[in-house]
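Subject: Predicted fold for Beta-carotene 3-hydroxylase, 152 residues

User T.R. writes:
Posting the sequence so we have a shared reference for the thread.
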Amino acid sequence: MLLNFLLVLGTFVFMEGFAWFTHKYIMHGIMWNWHESHHVHHKGWWETNDLFGIIFGVSATGLIVVGSEVEALRWLMYVGFGITLYGIGYFLFHDVIVHRRVKIKFKTSNRYLNRIIRAHYIHHKVHERDGAEAFGFLYAPKKYEKASVKGE
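User M.O. replies:
I've generated the structure tokens; pasting them so everyone works from the same file.
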């Protein structure tokens, strides 16, 4: 039981590094043609960039199904749970809180949450494939605290 919990937690934490790498080198690299939709103003709720979420969701679901059906691969189910939890957190934070794709009011005085939000806004100051910074989701260095950010 503890090992399963640690596998879910470890996968969740691993996903931050995986998401950072994917965001910087894949989304702002060879898959910019999908991700660009997230960096430009548009009407409607759909972005081509949402295809990344579908790919991650289908992958996590596949891991959960295989892990629940094949005893020897049961650990894959917990990896799938970790990816799913990360995806839920990503949706709530990124799509609901930061980009307001679901219209709810949210204000926080939490310094760390504000730092992550500010880092993401700084990431979106660049509307091109190259030149962006702050590719993470859960981690943002202290340089993104309000007092540290120049030109804001």
